[in-house]
């Protein structure tokens, strides 16, 4: 057997490394407190993230209501906010157990305690998965996809299940230690520096600062002080942001062409409309938010034709499902399915205008879908076809 030199031998280096971290602040109680806070943040992220995924890719049993109109704004705002809050929480949690991560051998007393392998294996998945989820999540809300090299939505979704599974195993194996640590008498720690209470206060302050510095992209009154928010909901054409402009979508020519037509099909036949013909229809108003999966949202005043009126023209009813298709080609979101609760809602419009102006090209001219309580990626822009089908 080839013997590694000491500077490359983990059996030699790991114990030395773990002994370099001697802070008296580390304790089972501190780790338990930080672990609970981090676990709650990750739990909220899982729940709200799954809601967003299920709205876009609904399983057979899932149904999402059209009211309250801002429910998705709340759930997705919580998803992004708790994800950002989890960054300082996870950093502090890893600091509190850092020396133990270098324990050698990794599977101590494996024969006497086989659960040790399960606990250590889940720990590797948990740490790696948590760091991956938070890092890619931050890259996503910043819309910086170049470093990833994969489709964020799919990988983020499945890695979340792996991470939460590892978290549940970790909780199960550590629960007795956590119970003892939190119920045991508190022992004062003699230190000339930071105290445990001061450390927890600092971590809480960091989480609060992250929240205030970013939540303005969801809570508009705080936009002016949310200096780290990737999106300012007040800035963009007609007063709110744009994720995909018309030039990037490749629709500038087709959307502004005199040959543009909206095709409406259903059980009773098919119709085509010019922009002027759509404007000649009864116009309705809705005040609804645009809420993006990246966490930002902005409320706007929309005008246009009610989708339910278009559904009725081609023989549909309140139980009909609608598929909306965009002029944009080659996009995963060029079509959107509008379920009956949303299609029949009187607030759902094929919008022609916003905030008292004709719809800007980057916001979906000549017309776009706007419906209550749906992700922004499903509020299809540059609509060219509306297909109505009965259940």
UniProtKB/TrEMBL annotation:
Q: Which GO biological process categories is it annotated with?
A: respiratory electron transport chain
Which GO molecular function entries does the Swiss-Prot or TrEMBL record give?
oxidoreductase activity
Q: Any stretches that span the bilayer, and where are they? A: 34-56, 76-102, 123-146, 158-177, 198-216
Annotated Oxidoreductase molybdopterin-binding domain residues: 255-389
Entry's Pfam families?
Oxidored_molyb
**UniProt KW keywords:** Membrane, Transmembrane, Transmembrane helix
PANTHER family found in the cross-reference section = BLL0505 PROTEIN (PTHR43032:SF2), PROTEIN-METHIONINE-SULFOXIDE REDUCTASE (PTHR43032)
Q: Name the chain's protein.
A: DMSO/TMAO reductase YedYZ molybdopterin-dependent catalytic subunit
Query: What organism, scientifically named, is this protein from?
Result: Allocatelliglobosispora scoriae
């Amino acid at each position: 057997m080839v013997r590694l030199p000491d500077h490359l031998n983990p059996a030699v280096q790991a114990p030395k490394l773990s002994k370099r971290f001697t802070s008296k602040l580390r304790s089972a109680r501190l780790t338990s407190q930080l672990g609970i806070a981090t676990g709650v943040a990750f739990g909220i992220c899982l729940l709200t993230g799954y809601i967003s995924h299920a709205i876009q890719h609904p399983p057979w049993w899932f149904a999402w209501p059209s009211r309250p109109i801002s429910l998705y704004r709340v759930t997705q705002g919580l998803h992004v906010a708790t994800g950002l809050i989890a960054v300082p929480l996870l950093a502090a949690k890893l600091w509190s157990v850092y020396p133990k991560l270098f324990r050698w051998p990794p599977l101590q007393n494996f024969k006497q305690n086989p659960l040790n392998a399960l606990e250590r294996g889940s720990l590797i998945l948990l740490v790696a998965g948590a760091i991956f989820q938070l890092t890619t999540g931050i890259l996503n809300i910043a819309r910086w996809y170049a470093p990833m090299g994969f489709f964020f939505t799919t990988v983020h979704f499945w890695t979340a299940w792996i991470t939460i599974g590892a978290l549940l195993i970790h909780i199960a194996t550590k629960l007795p230690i956590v119970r003892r640590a939190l119920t045991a008498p508190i022992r004062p720690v003699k230190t000339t520096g930071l105290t445990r209470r001061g450390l927890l206060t600092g971590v809480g302050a960091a989480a609060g600062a992250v929240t205030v510095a970013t939540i303005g992209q969801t809570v508009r009154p705080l936009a002016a002080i949310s200096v780290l928010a990737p999106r300012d909901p007040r800035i963009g054409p007609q007063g709110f942001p744009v994720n995909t402009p018309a030039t990037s979508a490749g629709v500038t020519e087709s959307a502004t062409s005199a040959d543009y037509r909206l095709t409406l099909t259903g059980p009773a036949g098919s119709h085509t409309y010019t922009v002027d013909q759509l404007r000649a229809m009864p116009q309705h108003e809705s005040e609804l938010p645009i809420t993006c999966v990246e966490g930002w949202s902005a409320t706007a005043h929309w005008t246009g034709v009610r989708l339910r009126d278009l559904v009725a023209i081609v023989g549909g009813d309140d139980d009909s499902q609608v598929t909306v298709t965009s002029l944009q080609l080659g996009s995963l979101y060029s079509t959107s399915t509008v379920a009956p609760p949303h299609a029949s809602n009187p607030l759902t419009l094929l919008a022609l205008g916003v905030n008292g102006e004709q719809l800007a090209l980057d916001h979906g001219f000549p017309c776009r879908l706007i419906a209550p309580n749906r992700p922004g990626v499903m509020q299809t822009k540059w609509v060219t076809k509306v297909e109505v089908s009965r259940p």
